[in-house]
From TrEMBL:
GO molecular function, one term: rRNA binding
Pfam families listed in its UniProt record: Ribosomal_L1
Signal peptide per UniProt: none
UniProt keyword annotations, A-Z: Repressor, Ribonucleoprotein, Ribosomal protein, RNA-binding, rRNA-binding, Translation regulation, tRNA-binding
Gene3D superfamilies, per database record: 3.30.190.20, 3.40.50.790
One BP term from GO: regulation of translation
Protein name as catalogued: Large ribosomal subunit protein uL1
Any one Gene Ontology cellular component term annotated for this protein: large ribosomal subunit
Assembly mode: Part of the 50S ribosomal subunit.
Superkingdom of the organism of origin: Bacteria
PROSITE patterns: RIBOSOMAL_L1 (PS01199)
SUPFAM superfamilies the record matches: Ribosomal protein L1
Source organism: Chroogloeocystis siderophila 5.2 s.c.1
């Protein structure tokens, strides 16, 4: 039985017209429809013309959001030797070697991003079944397998996000907080669009961009005119 929609959501839906909005107009409306009792995230849901079951049509990459995510990002690092000290000095929240791998296997998950140095990846591999479904498995494509742990920690704490297309070719990304100004949200959304264009899979045929919707966490979906967004000049500061 379908869950009955709340009166709040019914009222919010009345504010959204069934049409693609200009980017800044859509983001202003997103803020207007963020009426929950907590600070909602700003989310983008993008349907691409790809079929990720083929390896040359998969999209997995990172985006550096110029205006940040609005979140405190807890970073864990698995490394050995001097890299453990380096990660601690660089501000990692959780640092360890084999003992941290064991703790994660036993259920430790007090982090938002996991970075690993290449030399420990054979041991980290056994965490795949645990970390994969949570989107936490380190990967070279995601910038989370690296010896440059200082830079990686700084990037992810400053607003770098890893994202991927799901099995239906849809990308779901949080690109800020509904408390951001529409202009700052637009800078982040533009950075996301440019990253998706720059990382177009080699096997993507035909029309790459299908639809883009934005919403607050508890708000209705608002369609964005993707061509208008792509035609805009980047204003990343």
């Amino acid at each position: 039985m379908a869950k009955k929609e709340s009166r709040r959501m019914q009222e919010l839906r009345k504010k959204v017209e069934d049409r693609p909005y200009q980017p800044l107009e859509a983001l202003s409306l997103l803020k207007e429809t963020a009426t929950a009792k907590f600070t909602e995230a700003a989310e983008a849901h993008i349907r691409l013309g790809i079929d990720p079951k083929y390896t040359d049509q998969q999209l997995r990459t990172t985006v550096a959001l110029p205006k940040g995510t609005g979140q405190v990002v807890r970073v864990a690092v698995i490394a050995r030797g001097e890299k453990v000290t380096e990660a601690t000095n660089a501000g990692a929240d959780v640092v360890g070697s084999e003992e941290l791998i064991d703790e994660i296997q036993q259920g430790r998950m007090d982090f938002d991003r996991l970075i690993a140095t290449p030399d420990v990846m054979p041991q980290v591999a056994r965490l795949g079944r645990l970390l994969g479904p949570r989107g936490l498995m380190p990967s070279p494509k995601g910038g989370t397998v690296t010896f440059d742990v200082t830079q990686a920690i700084a990037d992810f704490k400053a607003g770098k996000l890893e994202f991927r297309a799901d099995r239906t070719g849809i990308v779901h990304v949080m690109f800020g907080k509904a408390s951001f100004s529409p202009e700052d949200l637009l800078v982040n959304l533009k950075a996301l669009q440019e990253t998706i264009d720059r990382n177009r899979p080699s096997g993507a045929k035909g029309r790459y961009w299908r639809t883009m919707f934005v919403s607050a966490t508890m708000g209705p979906s608002i369609q964005v005119d993707i061509n208008a967004l792509r035609d805009m000049k980047s204003e990343a500061a």
